[in-house]
Amino acid sequence: MTHNQTSAIVESPARWIRSRNRWTIFEILFWIATLAPLYFFPAYLNLASQVAITALFALSVDLVLGYAGIITLGHAMFFGLGAFTAGILSSRYGWGEPISGLLLGGMVAALAGYVTSFLIVRVQHLALIMVTLGLGLLTFELANSLRWLTGGTDGLTGISTWKIFGYFRFDLWGYTSYAYSLAVLFLGFLICRLVVSSSFGLALRGIRENVQRMPAIGSDYKWHLRKVYTISAAIAGIAGALLTQTTNTVTLEVLSFQRSADVVVMLILGGTGRLYGAIIGAVIFLVAKDQLAGINPQYWFLWIGILLMAVVLFMPKGILGGLSRLIRRED
Amino acid sequence: MALRIAAIVALGLSAAWTTGAMAQETVKVGLILPYSGPFADAAKQLEAGVTLYIQKHGDEVAGKKIELIRKDTGGPNADVARRLAQELVVRDQVDILAGFALTPEAVGVAEIATEAKKLTVLMNAATSSIIDLSPYMVRTSVTIPQVNYALGKWAVEEAGVKQAYTLVSDYGPGHDAESSFAKGFTEAGGTILGADRTPVANPDFSAYVQRVKDSNPEAVYIFVPGGAQPAAIGKALADRGLSPPDTKIFAQGELTHPEALESMGETARGVITTFHYTLERDDPLNKEFVDGYHAANNGRSPDLFSIGGYDGMHLIYEALKKTNGDASGDALIEAAKGMSWDSPRGPMSIDPETRDVVQTVYIREVQEVDGKLQNVVIHEIPEVKDPLHGAAK
Amino acid sequence: MINNIVIVLFDGFAFGMLLFVLSVGLTVTLGLMNFINLAHGAFGMVGGYVTVMLMRQYGVPFLLTLPLAFLGAALVSVVLERIFFRRLYRSGELNQVLFTIGLVFVAAAGATYFFGTGQQPIVLPSWLRGSVELFGIRFGVYRMFLIAVSLAITAVLFFTLERTRFGAKIRASVDNQKVAQALGLNVERIFAITFALGSGLAGLGGALAVEIVGLDPSFGFHFLVYVLIVVSVGGLGSIAGSFLGAALLGIGDVAGKYLVPELGSFLIYLLLVAILLVKPTGLLGKR
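Above: the input entities. Below: the structure tokens describing the complete assembly.
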């Protein structure tokens, strides 16, 4: 940070925050580009829809991992809670209205996030990773044992999602799914952007950089952490509910360790702490996986593995970090 | 501007490509399987069965060329299976969906099968109820109740066992196995002394085996997924002195697959299993199948996945012959209903009402043949239907 | 009744020792060197395949394959350490996570290509099979063997790290690289050797585990969770802690399953979360 910047912050913190958060041309172009699949790749809309959902999930992880420094290997817990809430609502209670299902899925996940956040803030480093992992796996096992409710390993059948606003039917090509997922992703992104660019977001970064110093400057860091964890859980839950609604299926896999680990991998791949890294990571990981698996369904993970290793060696700040260095817009 | 032109060109090319493919006389079969991840072996064995059939019978049937398109679900992911089915239908324009090693894969695809009206061949997924999810589904593998209900009855009526303890994996298929064995067993007059469920990812069985030992039953019934667990639980039982002839051991066929038998060694002797396919069964069709499979797969033996894939392909070929190459879902499913044939596993047919598989259930015992332990068929129960369907309707 | 208590404790302890042999190598790489090595299971897989291939293809006796499994995994890791890992020591934990996960993917693909997707059974020598009866209780022979090997590993490691000159060098290098370097220690070499030691132990653990948990290309992923649990419960960098943690988890898991089988699949995770909330640094961890 140069001297000029520092003085700008001191003079008018609010204006400095605002100036940091102006929309750049790259961002606007990026969001316009997300509409491309609707016109140019209609055969890939179902994939695009799953990418958008995963990107939203990755965004939620970026909030806690990239901004608050909470490394989690159990975030599928919230994704899965949202997914099962939407699924159970439709399958067991016959309520398939999408928007309310989405909100309810987010609320259930947020509640779980709020409750577990009290445990999360007690621990750090490896213990923190392992507590998130343990809680995630406990939720998975719980869902497995509640077979009457969740359908167990066979998955939940009989989910039927109604038309969005009573008008847009989920079609075989995935036009509705993608448009819906993209809209929710965009809203989720706006919320995340708002969160990280607020003074609350700055406090979080402070916690990530130096947790000991935060209480000294009068910041209740535990409360900050609990708040961001709850927000993140809600977004993950919405992503999960979105997956249920666009596919009319839920299986235990939504809660699995693999899903927790994959999303962290995608996030680091794209670059942490920059929101767009989460989206880019999900796009690259899933599109690469789809294309490679199309070539050889048995060995695609070899190439994914090589991709991950190469990114670490050549772009240590993730793909987005590497790109922004390339175009000299290091922030 | 350049980008837009490029995109339009790409779109035009892909459209030309799809119409070109459609004009040809091909029948495309989309194979949806867990090619990667912990169930990769199931996918590999199932596909080997499919390709062996094609290799044997040529890739042309009823004047049409069969083309396989393989898709990886990575495991029991219903949502991924569903997306892959959608893509197969809209992007690759397949005529038939097939594969499905795991139940959630079939669950995910059901809605697509119905909406797109595509024949969907369940080559493994063994949960009884999934066949009801779409009228275009047909199953060429087995259902868990089919073999285990029969075993439960047989254990009382023929083997004279009066009480048993059940120990199953704590997931859908395990629960189905537990309830259908218990149903057959108690209906025939037996008593279940106790029932425990082991975690699906379970590296150690000692605690559960000790519980079985405490209740000192006449027989133990076991269901674990294939892979490493059969040998592990077999050895754990033997370590506690729970082994035939003192304590009878009943299980579904995975328990004594060739690798598990090798690993268990002597302790496997006398274990009784129930299955729809027996590798060692003395039958000319089976011998031809096994020899062909060995030759094509470096000496690896076929298993339940392989035979499900092989017979699934048979069903597709015969149905296409019947419809004279009409690959529409409605024509094919009609052709499949009531079809019967001689498979390497023995005689089998498709129930015209439920579209589910009807076949002989084999009760086998591990015995020594030519100095090697293997499964020997000791009893055959012909034309077994899925008992749950009979009960539901 | 007393017999049941004894056998459940024995089986639990033996299961704990299986967890211990699988994870002790990670206590070295993650615990001592602070390197987040999620490819630990992949090195275990290397050891497993070394043992399986030597036994099946060349008829090498089981006991003899164990040191070879150690060497095989150690060798592979030294090569990888020189080429890749040493660049990552200072590049942050997230990069270590991403890189080692990538490596597990590659290892799984390699194993599939060379050995196929199937299970690889081994046939133990007859003296390690079955069970022996003592005081009316049947003890599994292989379980006794596992316990003996684990005790030996613990003793040797404890002695090496705490009582020898080399151990002191490792601790010095890990605690403060710059000072250690200034004192004339060849930190690079010490790190390479320590890494090889950790991976070799992983290979040994993999080889010992084949008999109980089997071996296929997903081995590297499969036991990652268990291994991380043991290391975190034991406490970073403490061999004794890992031993204690593994024993506690093993006995807790088996005894719990025996008494309350309905909770079977929850137990190990409940123990994990409970222990870490009470003692975030693990049982004997200092950091």
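Note for the figure: Chain C touches chain A at residues 30, 84, 87-88, 91-95, 97-99, 101-110, 112-113, 221, 225, 228-229, 231-232, 236, 262, 265-266, 269-270, 272-273, 276-277, 280-282, 287 (CB under 8 Å).
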